[in-house]
């Protein structure tokens, strides 16, 4: 049975074609022991109407695939979502999405269904993944009636874990981009931010292999220990 077979009886109104597409989605893969170079990973970035993941709306999705140890530019997903109630605000100065672009966006259910088809069973990477995960989980539940079960790894945690000498413990995406000397043509655009996050992730995976961490499961275990140490009171 598909991992997405638990559609809610009371939820979004989906037509027969959409229900069939949902039923065909594969089960989410966990963090396994495959070598990092053998993984298909989806790096995602979201633009939202604000910074509250419990309330603000998802406006744009940008995603790129890492496969066979490289960024596969042939596999990208980009979509602006329609949001009838959206009004220009402070966040517009950051993401640059005009109200007209959002008004002309794809229906949220269709945009999210397309993203899930693009995602497949692959684990997800994001910078500050907790925010993106919360927004995606809420949007998928609201518009598709599904529970998103895909694992997320946070590049904002992997970077200081694997590069402690950088002394950028609470750094943002711009800080790590500068640290690694990457060139970015555009920022605060979902697809562009997903691409630079993927570039940073590949650098980090190279560092991880040199430290004997060559799987998502190994990285996740090391992150668990790192978080525990970071939260422990200093003596």
TrEMBL record:
SUPFAM superfamilies: Ribonuclease H-like
Gene3D superfamilies for this protein: Ribonuclease H-like superfamily/Ribonuclease H (3.30.420.10)
Protein's UniProt keywords contain Repressor: no
Entry keywords, A to Z: Exonuclease, Hydrolase, Nuclease
InterPro entries, A to Z: Ribonucl_H (IPR013520), RNaseH-like_sf (IPR012337), RNaseH_sf (IPR036397)
Domain Exonuclease: 40-210
Official protein name in the record: 3'-5' exonuclease
Pfam families, alphabetized: RNase_T
Highest taxon, organism lineage: Bacteria
Entry keyword Hydrolase: yes
Alphabetical list of PANTHER family matching this protein: DNA POLYMERASE III SUBUNIT EPSILON, PROTEIN NEN2
A single GO molecular function term of this UniProt record: exonuclease activity
Source organism of the structure: Zestomonas insulae
